[in-house]
C-alpha cells in the first residue's frame, strides 16, 4: 500500500506548490490513475514515490514505512518505472535493456537470461525474434512493451507509469492498455499511472485521482467518478460523453431480463458492454438483443445511461 499523508512539494521560485497537502491511498494490487490538466502536479506526485523529488511537508509511506527513512537507490530497485518514449538504452539490445535491474542486483547469468525471455513472452514479444534487436529496430508499441518488460524484470511490487502509451498510435494504444492492464492485474502489482487520456484512466484505474493546481479534486472508482463527479470541474474534465463512457464499462449480461426474444433477433454475448449493445441495436435497427435465452432491451440501456444524466440534474441549482 502506498499512502500520501499531507504531502506538499514546492519548487524554488514557483507561485504555488506543485503538489499541496496531498492525502491519497493506493491499496496493494490496485491501479490508481492520476489525471488532470497540464502542470497540475501529476508527474511530481509520481516522482516523489521513487524520490526523484522530495516532499517539503508530509510523508509518503509504503507498507507503513516512511520512504524518507531509507536509501533512495534501494527504494528505486524495488519500484518499476515506465516513461513515455520509454528511455530504453539505444546501444543495448532488447535483452540487455530488460536485464538492467537484475544485472544491477547481481543475479547469475542463467537466471537473468531466463527472466528476460519470460518477461518478453509476458508482454507479447517472441524472445527468439526480439531478444537481440536494438530499440531502433522496434515499432513504438514494441518499445513500450520492452519498457514494461524492463520495469517488471526484478518483480517489483510497485510500478510507476508516466504517460506509458503516450507515444503510440491510438489503435496500438488501446491494445496495450487492455493487454498490459490485464497483466498488471494478474500479477497484482500496485500501479500509479499518470495519463492525459481520460479513457485510459477510466479503463486502467481501479481508482482515478483527478488533480488541479497541485490539489486533489476527487479520488474515486471510475464508475463513481462518472456517475457522481464532485464538482463542475470534474464533470467538465470527464467531458461530454460521460453516459457513453459509463455504458462502455457496464456488462450487457448484468442488464438482461429473463424473457427470451421471440423469432430471430441479433445476438450479443453477456460479456459485451452496453455501449457495444447500443451500437448493435443501432446497426441492426432493433430495440432488443438476444443473450442466450434472455434479452436486453433498449430501455434497459437507456436507463443505465440515465443514471449519469439524473445525477447531472441533481447538481443543477434550482
Ligand atoms: N524540477 C522542477 N523545477 C521547477 N518546477 C517544476 C519542476 N518540475 C515540475 N515543476 C513545476 O511543478 C508544476 C507541476 O508539474 P508536473 O510536471 O508535476 O505537472 P503534470 O501534471 O505532470 O504536468 P504535465 O501533464 O504537463 O506533464 C508545474 O508548474 C511545473 O512547471
Automatic annotation (TrEMBL):
* Keywords in alphabetical order: ATP-binding, Nucleotide-binding, Transport
MF terms from GO for this chain are: ATP binding
SUPFAM superfamilies in UniProt: P-loop containing nucleoside triphosphate hydrolases
Where is each ABC transporter domain found? Answer: 2-238
User: Which Pfam families does the protein's record reference?
Assistant: ABC_tran
According to the record, the signal peptide region is: none
Q: Which InterPro entries does this entry report, sorted A to Z? A: AAA+_ATPase, ABC_transporter-like_ATP-bd, ABC_transporter-like_CS, P-loop_NTPase
UniProt lists the family membership as follows: Belongs to the ABC transporter superfamily.
Protein's name according to its UniProt entry? ABC transporter ATP-binding protein
| Organism (species) | Methylorubrum zatmanii
